[in-house]
Amino acid sequence: MSALPEPGIVIVGASLAGLRGAEALRLRGYTGPLDIVGDEPHPPYDRPPLSKHVLAGELAPDATALPNLVPLRANWHLGVAATGLDREARTLRLADGRALAYRRLLIATGAQARPWPGPERAALSGVFTLRGRDDAAALRAVLAKGPRHVLIVGGGLIGCEAASCCRDLGIDVTLVDPNPTPLARSLGTFVGGVVAGLLERSGVDFRPGAHVELLEGDSFGGFRRAHLRGGETIEAEVAIVALGAVRSTGWLAGAGLMADAGGLTCDGACRALAADGTPCEDIYAAGDVARWPNPIYSGRLISVEHWGNAVEQAGHAARNMLAAPDDQEPYAHLPAFWSSQFGINIKAVGLSEGADSVAIVQGSRAARRFLAVYGRAGRSIAAVSFDEARWLPAYAEQIRAGRPFPPIRDATDQARIEIHAPGFPPRRSEPAAREIVDA
Amino acid sequence: MRVVVDLNRCQGYAQCCYAAPESFVLRGHEILFYDPAPPAAKRGEIARAVQACPVRAISVEGLDAVTSPEVETGS
Question: Suppose A362 and one of A161, A371, A394, B7 were both cysteines; which one would form an S-S bond, judging by CB atoms 3.0 to 4.6 Å apart?
């Protein structure tokens, strides 16, 4: 009787985390079979340029393909979504009906743009979300035709970057956000006020505290205007819905894992947790989709939707996937992100959520060149720089070590430190997290 | 070639912009704009940019095809 080939490692998700995870496995000496499954037809590509240079027309959408830094010898299954997971049989079900057996599984399915609530309106032509390469290509094609007016719903990073691009293209923009300033959830209104100033200076019609209630279409199924709460309407040819992301965990329904729209819960070593809370020794997760107890923030369960985490967590998960069950290292990560908009480079480290104070420790808000540190209960927890990136690593070190707030008091060129309220909006009432359990 | 820059790591020292001026450009004070798919003819410049980066933020696929300066300047 001939033995069946031993199943190898399967990676679900062919974006940054999936690619870097695969590379880390090979670099660490894994020589067995490697299968990579991705729902998009494209090989791994870089997302950050999509909402900047691709929208601006400076980069073709396909130029963003990621470098493959290690020979992978992988079987790629692109354009095929994973549709289910059978943990007992250790197989992954694919949309084309095939099943892939695994010895170890890395889940790196990421997240998807939160759609406009109401599929009919979301499907109007002229209504876009911006997450993948095809989204960016489609939106770029429309912007290149020179629409008169673009409505952007949501003043987060993607909404602000899109607004910046549209203004560079000479297109009128209205940006609607329920909070008093843009980026209020990630940076608070004290710092967000600087971004509001950038919007104003570049001629964006910013509507703080406003809510879009309805996207109205014409008889041809095209977007025509938006209705705001209170009755006002905004005429536009294009609406960009930038309401954040939901984690891609729907395909795990029935798998008996602790997963919902907020992510797949893992233990500290990136192993997925079964619904009863025990870690699965053969299933790991990394990148946007993973939610894990981060030791840097007292073991708080967090998921980090940023580039640096996809790279680092995938590498860490790969390490643990190849290690013995009693040699699983916990994953500690200081979140970081960058954005460029309105000619300014914004970089941040740490988790600002829950901050009770903020201080400008370098530069000034008036000059739009500064570094701000966030504190919580006397500890430094996060920092953001506007065109002051070289100061950031020193503060990142202080934050990682949980130093007192404010952390550095005698730096060169430092003005007198004043402490302010960061101005975070109240937590939004999320639809109750849906636990996916066995049907 | 395929290029990606870790922009968390990048501190805007702009050494890549001197080494490969057609592939890396600094905008404003510190926004790095780069070509993620530079032509093969730029291989030598890109290799110098990788070496010149003080924070080692640049990763490239396809650099190893350079085996000698002759190959680099050849057709």
Answer: A371
What ipTM is given for this predicted complex? 0.92
Q: Is A133 on the interface with B (CB under 8 A)?
A: no
The residue of chain B with its CA nearest to that of A47 is B4
Indicate if A350 and A204 belong to the same structural domain: no
Q: What's the CA angle centered on A68, arms A64 and A72, to 5 degrees?
A: 145
Single-letter amino acid code for the residue at A87: R
Report domain extents, chain B: 2-73
pLDDT in tens, A287-297: 999 999 999 99
CATH number of B2-73: 3.30.70.20
Distance from B70 to chain A by nearest Cα, in Å? 24
Cβ contact, residue pair B28, A387, below 8 Å: yes
- Structurally, how many domains does chain A consist of? 3
Side chain identity, residue A359: A
The three-class DSSP label of residue A167 is helix
Number of A to B CB contacts under 8 A, please give it. 65
DSSP state of A266: B
| Segments of B1-75 assigned E as strands | 2-5, 24-27, 31-34, 58-61
Q: What is the pTM of this model?
A: 0.94
Nearest CB to A69; choose among B7, B27, B61? B61
B29: contact with A, CB 8 A cutoff: yes
Residue that is last in its domain, among A210, A243, A276: A243
